[in-house]
Amino acid sequence: MEAPLYSDFPPDPSTPPAFWVGPRHLAGEDGRLYDAVADALAGLGWTSLTIIRGRHEPDEAPEDRQVLRSTVLHISPDALRWAQWCLADEPFHLGELPIAWQISARDQASSPLARWSAYFTRDVPGEAVTDFLVAVDAHDQPTAPLAEPGLVLDAVAVHGWFRDIDQPEAAGMDPTGTSHISLGEVPPLIQDGDPRVLVTEADEVGPAGWQAWAEPALGATCLWAASFAAGVPHDLVAAFAFSLSSTTPVLRRVLPEATQERLLRAPAT
Questions:
Q1: φ/ψ bin of 45: left (φ > 0), alpha (ψ from -120 to 50), beta (otherwise)
Q2: 227 DSSP β-pair partners
Q3: I want to staple 214 with a disulfide (CB 3.0 to 4.6 A). Which of 49, 135, 137, 223 is the partner?
Q4: Tens of pLDDT along the chain (269 residues)?
Q5: Of 191, 192, 195, 226, which is closest to residue 210 (Cα–Cα)?
């Protein structure tokens, strides 16, 4: 048996042991989705702003101030893209799950509106969200379409995912049929700069965007969900899909209860 590296400092029993686990798309985010993404954005040179809204009564002590809502916003150096941590600010839901990160981009800094937005709930692997943001940051024009939709399914096929038999050009899934990615109608409230979204009638199908989700059991609540507006360039979605489907193990201390039995794990030494 190997001796601990620092035998004079025994492990903290309150800290769960770390494991290398896979597959990534079922591994959750270790309770560190904000920290993992925020650290990556800081490394890219993005500026973070914390906005706090509250109520302060006259003669009220500072410690008694009522904070009603708060949000953390990260902005790229050129102000063409931004990421908002939504859980602190009354998020709306996607697949019955609260949105954790909303990532947006616009054509020019003078425009007040996002050209597109992408949304990620809790338990989307932080590695996949980070890789998506790295791809967004690397684009000189983050709203310019540079690839065809097939690139997204090619990205997951590299890691053993299958194309859907009924929709081979628009949908794919992992070998267990637990996680899916599909090009189709976007859910309500997904923001997009395409004017066709605003004029779509109730009985019409609007522009298609990519959706991804993990459903641990048929009919069960999703483990996580991600939604990309129709305007999100396919090559950026492909960067997310490639990372999500990666077979490289990820380090985790906290595993999702719904998928624990499906994960392969090895102690991190």
A1: left
A2: 119, 211
A3: 223
A4: 333 333 344 455 567 899 999 999 999 999 999 999 999 999 999 999 987 766 656 676 766 666 555 779 999 999 999 999 988 766 678 888 999 999 999 999 888 889 999 999 999 999 999 999 999 999 988 999 888 999 999 999 999 999 999 999 999 999 999 999 999 988 776 666 555 554 455 556 668 899 999 999 888 899 999 999 999 999 999 999 999 999 999 999 999 999 999 999 999 97
A5: 226
C-alpha to C-alpha distances, 213 to 91, 122, 183, nearest whole angstrom:
18, 11, 12
Is the sign of the CA dihedral 211, 213, 218, 223 positive or negative?
A: negative
DSSP per-residue codes, 4-26: PTTTTS---TTSPPPEEEE-GGG
Residue 148: how many CB atoms within 10 A of its CB?
A: 11
- Region class of 95: left (phi > 0), else alpha (psi between -120 and 50), else beta: left
pTM assigned to the model: 0.86
CA distance readout (Å), 156 to 32, 48, 153, 161, 228: 24, 32, 5, 5, 16
The answer to whether the CB of 74 falls within 8 A of the CB of 38 is yes
